[in-house]
Amino acid sequence: MTVTAELDPPWAQPSHPKLVKVHRVPGQHQSYAKSLVTLPRGSLFTLITNHFFIKQRTWPSVEAPNGDHIDLNSDLFYVNHSCAPSLEFDVNKMEVRVSKDRDLHEGDLLTFFYPSTEWQMVQHFECFCNAPRCLGTIMGASELGKSKLEGLWLNEHIQKRLENQHNGTAQENADERDGFGKVGKVNQEGEGWMKSA
User: Fold this and answer.
1) What is the pLDDT, as a whole number, of residue 7?
2) Phi, psi of 78 (to 5 degrees)
3) Are 193 and 60 in contact (CB under 8 A)?
4) At what angle do helices 141-149 and 156-167 cross, to 10 degrees?
């Protein structure tokens, strides 16, 4: 499926009216979100609610610890990638926290580090965050490897898989798994919503 324009979301907007201001920009992958609040580093920003689980990884889905994929089904959809993110999406606790590296201020762009949740991604893309440690081409943690991700906040399931990969003890080849233990190909068409990036 090729998406040439952003679609209207199926959830009631705004989903987080006291936290998130969505800026809809015409064109594919142009919309973004800004913070409506100021919070200290490490603070809880919001819980991940209103989500549902889907069977296949898609461009906007977030990988859960058990290999399932989560459709955020909220304005969190508009939180884009950065190599120096303002937020951390902790899918083990189903919460979004302010990055441990910096405070969040009203008007800041809301971003998270995509490989912190993704072992593999439907498609790679070029990052233009201009962070000192920008990785350039963004892909799943399995392809970036442990050394490139050293010192970055990662979900527990990504940390464990990287350690297994590094030690040569991985029990499965993620390239051949669909997240449910069945051998198959991941849908490369990115069915569903397109993430603003």
Assistant:
1) 65
2) -90, 5
3) yes
4) 90
Judge residue 133's burial from the number of C-beta atoms within 10 Å of its C-beta, 0-12 exposed, 13-18 middle, 19 or more buried: exposed
Read off the tokens for 177: 């798994």
Can you read off the two tokens belonging to residue 196? 């603003």
Residue with tokens 């070029």: 126
Contact 128, 30 (CB under 8 A): no
Q: How far apart are CA 145 and CA 124, in angstroms?
A: 15
Distance CA 100, CA 64 (A): 21
pLDDT tens digit sequence for 62-93:
998 888 899 999 999 999 999 999 999 999 99
- The CA–CA distances, whole Å, from 171 to 33, 36, 53, 66, 167 equal 38, 43, 24, 14, 11
**Strand pairing report for 80-81 and 111-112:** parallel
Tell me: the pLDDT tens digits for 103-140?
Answer: 999 999 999 999 999 999 999 999 999 999 999 999 99
